[in-house]
Amino acid sequence: MKCDLCDSKKAKIRYISRSYGNDEELFVIENIPLISCPDCGESYFTAETMKKIEAIKQQKTSISVAKNILVAKFAS
Ligand SMILES: [Zn+2]
Questions:
Q1: How remote is the CA of residue 10 from the centroid of ligand 1, in Å?
Q2: pLDDT at site 51
Q3: Using an 8 Å Cβ cutoff, are 65 and 38 in contact?
Q4: Measured in angstroms, how far is the CA atom of residue 8 from the centroid of ligand 1?
Q5: CATH number assigned to the domain covering 1-76
Q6: Lower CB count within 10 Å: N or C terminus of the chain?
Q7: Percentage above 70 pLDDT, the chain
Q8: Average pLDDT over the chain, rounded to whole?
């Protein structure tokens, strides 16, 4: 697909998980499409994806399933 930033055609979609919120109320969204472009080295969400993320965050209590997750801290 086409990269919005440099017009390269090598951009690819990767699906990632992102966490939002803080320790008390951590919220994870899985399977978010992230566009990665090998030519300009950028990774970004499309405007449409950003909108959808906001919508999911608004209705997180009604559409989420509780999962036990392991959380690791990168920094000590
Ligand atoms: Zn690019």
A1: 8
A2: 97
A3: no
A4: 5
A5: 3.10.20
A6: C
A7: 99
A8: 92
3-state secondary structure (DSSP) of residue 30 = strand
Under the banding of pLDDT at 50, 70 and 90, the label for residue 76 is: low
Ligand 1 centroid to 35 CA: how many Å? Answer: 9
The CA 1 to ligand 1 mean position distance, Å, reads 10
Expressed in angstroms and rounded, the spacing between residue 20 Cα and the centre of ligand 1 is 26
Spatial contact of 7 and 14, defined as CB atoms under 8 Å apart: no
Please tell me the predicted confidence (pLDDT) of residue 25.
82
How many Å lie between the centroid of ligand 1 and the Cα of residue 37?
5
Can you read off the two tokens belonging to residue 50?
């950003």
Rounded CA separation 15/30 (Å):
8
Task: List the Cα angle 42/70/33 in 5-degree steps.
Answer: 30
